[in-house]
Design a protein that fits this description.
Elements lengths: L1 H11 L6 H16 L3 H18 L2 H12 L13 H13 L4 H14 L3 H18 L5 H16 L3 H15 L1
Helix pairs in contact: 1-2, 2-3, 2-4, 3-4, 4-5, 5-6, 6-7, 7-8, 8-9
Length: 174
């Protein structure tokens, strides 16, 4: 339970800044928003993000940026408001070259927030390529990227490629 973790970390660190507390606040906020308590979720995720910035730990900052972007709407739905934070998370994750899956996850989540379909398609293609390079062909992230790319291509009128990708994702889901 993230609420217990936040309480425990606050007691352990006497209310001061700490990377674990920042991370727990971000996770709590994301979960609260996912469960339709967007007001409290967004507030806790923001507190976690602010603390992560003060702590200076890039890995925790990336996680808190991702959690914050998931706190804008219920059920973790993407929001255009989250795009600047996702761009920041993407740039930071590119600097952390030891985890290409995180870079791909940031790309995919950013693409979900964009209103520019050409940029969204390009980011999803890049995310898919990275996921395919570093994960198994039937990994949920690979399958999700294929499905999302198919949806984006469908929305932009590229019907043949969209259909092929959507059929491929359906085959991989089964």
């Amino acid at each position: 339970n993230f609420e217990k973790a936040v309480t425990s970390y606050r007691l352990a660190f006497h209310g001061g800044d700490h990377r674990n507390l920042a991370h727990a606040l971000g996770q709590l906020g994301r979960c609260q928003s996912f469960n339709q308590d967007v007001k409290n979720g967004h507030q806790n995720a923001r507190l976690g993000l602010e603390m992560a910035r003060r702590c200076g730990d890039k890995e925790i900052l990336i996680h808190c940026l991702l959690n914050f972007t998931a706190s804008f709407q219920a059920w973790g739905m993407g929001s255009a408001e989250g795009a600047p934070y996702l761009r920041e998370a993407l740039e930071l994750s590119k600097q952390q070259t030891n985890n290409p899956a995180t870079v791909a996850d940031c790309m995919a989540r950013l693409a979900d927030c964009l209103t520019n379909s050409a940029e969204a398609v390009q980011l999803t293609r890049e995310a898919l390529a990275l996921h395919q390079k570093h994960l198994a062909p039937d990994h949920p992230s690979v399958v999700s990227d294929i499905w999302v790319l198919g949806q984006e291509l469908l929305d932009s009128g590229q019907l043949e490629e969209a259909e092929a990708l959507l059929r491929q994702s359906l085959q991989l889901f089964h």
